[in-house]
Amino acid sequence: MKVLFLQDVRPTARAGDIKDVKNGFARNYLIPRKLAVLATNHEIERAEKLRKEAEARRKAEASEWRDIVETLKAEPIKVIVRTGPTGRLYGSVTAAMIAQEIESAAGREVDRRAIRIPAPIRTLGKYGIPVQFADEVDATLDVLVEPDEDSVARIEQAKQARAEAAAEDLTFEEVLEQESARDEAAAEEEAGASDDAGSEEGADAEESAEADEKPAE
Q1: What integer pLDDT is reported at residue 32 of this predicted model?
Q2: Are both 2-58 and 77-147 of the same fold?
Q3: CA angle at residue 91 from 99 to 76, to 5 degrees?
Q4: Which of 38, 158, 175, 207 could hold 85 in an S-S bridge, CB 3.0 to 4.6 Å?
C-alpha cells in the first residue's frame, strides 16, 4: 500500500515521503495514529509542503538538542542498579534504563532505539554510549553504572571476607564456611541459654509450689 507520511517515523520514513508499506502496518498503525495517509493524487500534492515544514521542524529540533547535549556531556548519566557481592549486575543495563535517566536530566523524551549500546553492560563502571538525539545530532555520553545501597553493603561484606581469607591464607569459600559455622554456633548458644533460663524458671516454680503445700509449723 502506498502512503504519504505526515510525520517522521524512524527509521522507516520522514514526513513528506511517499512509500510502499505493508497493508497491515498502514491500516493498523500508521493511518490510525495519523502518521500517514493513503497516497492519493490530492495527498501527493501536499507532499512538497509537508517536506518543507518537516525540514524546518527538524532543523529547529536539532538546534534545541545541540544545546541540551552540551549540558548532558558536562556530567555522567548515572544508572543505579542491583548487583551481587562481586559487583556483577543481576541482568544488564538496557537502552530503556539509560533513556529514562537521560530524559530525567534533559527534561525531554528520548527514543530508546536511538541509544546504541556497543556491548552488554553487566558490571559496574563508566561506559561511553552513542546516542542519536535528532538528525545530525549524535553524541557519546558517559554513563556511570553504580550499585544501590543494598548492593554496596553486599560488596563491602565480600571485600571483608576476601581480606580475612588473605590474612588467614584461606580461600574465599572457606571464610564463608567459617562465618556460617560461627552463625550456627551463636544460634545454638542462644537457644541453649533460653532452655537454661526455662529450666531455672521451672525449678523456682516447683520450689514455690512445695513451699505452699508445706503446712505451717
Answers
A1: 93
A2: no
A3: 40
A4: 158
Query: What are the C-alpha distances in Å from 211 to residues 63, 151, 168, 214?
Result: 96, 60, 58, 5
For residue 100, give the 3-state DSSP assignment: helix
Q: Does domain 77-147 have CATH number 3.40.50.360?
A: no
Sign of CA dihedral 42, 44, 50, 52: negative
Please report, as a single letter, which amino acid is at residue 217. Answer: E
CATH topology of domain 2-58: Ribosomal Protein L9; domain 1 (3.40.5)
115 burial via Cβ count (<10 Å: 0-12, 13-18, 19+) = buried
Q: What is the DSSP letter of 148?
A: -
Where are the chain's structural domains? 2-58, 77-147
The span from the CA of 78 to the CA of 126, in Å, is: 9
**What gap in Å lies between CA 83 and CA 152, rounded to an integer?**
8
What are 196's three cell numbers?
537454661
Given a cut of 80, whether residue 206 has pLDDT beyond it is no
Tens-place pLDDT, residues 113-138: 899 999 999 999 999 999 998 888 99
- What sign has the CA pseudo-torsion 182, 183, 187, 188? negative
CA 60 to centroid of chain Cα atoms:
32
* pLDDT of 181 higher than 80: no
Q: Rounded distance, CA 50 to CA 18, Å?
A: 11
